[in-house]
């Protein structure tokens, strides 16, 4: 029997609840499809930071390297630890160290879920560059606290980084409906985004079967509301992809439905799976977090591990649960009820 080694980082707030829910579903999938999951949980979080002064111990990255995949709930507790510290101390270093350059986020309505739009038949795969761009961390502050204070933050776009994320997008488009939309702001950002557009055009020549659209981020935001059904694969930089995928989450009914995979496509290091949402301090500890985004992220993990049949079955079980009206609106069901309904559908 194949055994996969998983590193779990439940993190903060509802991250803990939804990781627990997702792992219960993963265990049910493993037993139905004949593979084993061996997991080790790491307490790295804001609580850990308050105790140790760091989000993860020295050597944390090397510890994670030995696993087949990393599953993360959510990290952040702004009341005690600044978000810039928690994000740059755990999540971003993992994405960068393991070259998880493709952040894949699907946006579509699950059966029974009513989104805020009239449009229903959309199925968007958003691919966000995950290791450089606006979140490269290059910058600094000068004369802090003085009148002449200066803050500089530089976006970094490398040819290797831009080319590989676009190539990944083209491959996804080829495997789906054959359309790729590249999102930039090349009218205003005349170096980095013009460069991104150029690389898109160069690669397009290698993918004659994929049709390509170029859109500015502002027009794209409007399009995702007005005509999301016209979109297939969307590729964007780190910041733009981050923002667009919250919009994507909104049109698919809310953050409780938005899954996310941080993929290292060449598999030289583990990939990481996590819902798009954060730790939701406002509902933490109340057993009302929707675990569907987290479970869907688990399905993405199974697919990446090579358990495609189990992945499809988990997604079908989520759909069976929402089709019955389970978990389709905030407050309708508890985290545990939704998890139990998905497991029941998976085992049926
Ligand atoms: P959030 O995603 O935690 O919450 C935004 C809103 O959506 C809240 O009202 C919350 O109750 C609701 N929500 C989120 N997930 C839900 C779910 N599964 N079910 C039901 N409702 C849900 O975003 P935020 O409030 O901006 O951030 C809170 C903390 O999380 C911050 O510290 C932030 O930095 C962090 N964060 C972490 C990640 C991550 O770990 N990947 C992502 C985003 C935010």
Description:
The chain has 348 residues and is of the alpha/beta class. Helices cover 42% and strands 21% of the residues. It has helices at 14-33, 46-52, 60-65, 83-97, 159-175, 192-204, 217-226, 238-251, 292-305, 308-323, 335-347; strands at 3-11, 36-41, 69-74, 102-108, 123-129, 133-142, 150-156, 179-184, 211-216, 233-236, 261-263, 271-273. Strands 2-1-3-12-11-4-5-10-8-9 form a ten-stranded mixed β-sheet, with helices on both faces. Strands 6-7 form a two-stranded antiparallel sheet. Strand 1, helix 1 and strand 2 (36-41) form a beta-alpha-beta unit. Helix 1 (14-33) crosses helix 10 (308-323), helix 5 (159-175) packs across helix 6 (192-204) and helix 7 (217-226) packs parallel to helix 8. The protein is globular and about 55 Å long. The protein starts with a strand and ends with a helix. The structure holds nicotinamide-adenine-dinucleotide. Nicotinamide-adenine-dinucleotide is lined by residues 14, 74-78, 83, 87, 91, 255-256, 274, 277-283, 289-290, 293, 330.
Quick summary:
The protein is an alpha/beta fold.
Estimated helix fraction? 40-55%
Number of helices: 11
Subunit organisation of the chains: single chain
> The biggest beta sheet, please?
10 strands, mixed
Distance from first to last alpha carbon: 23 Å
Q: Biggest sheet, strands in spatial order? A: 2-1-3-12-11-4-5-10-8-9
Query: What's the rounded overall pLDDT mean?
Result: 97
Order of SSEs, N→C? EHEHHEHEEEEHEHEHEHEEHHH
The bound ligands are: nicotinamide-adenine-dinucleotide
Structural class of the helix and strand makeup? alpha/beta
Q: What gyration radius follows from the Cα positions, in whole Å?
A: 20 Å
Shape: globular
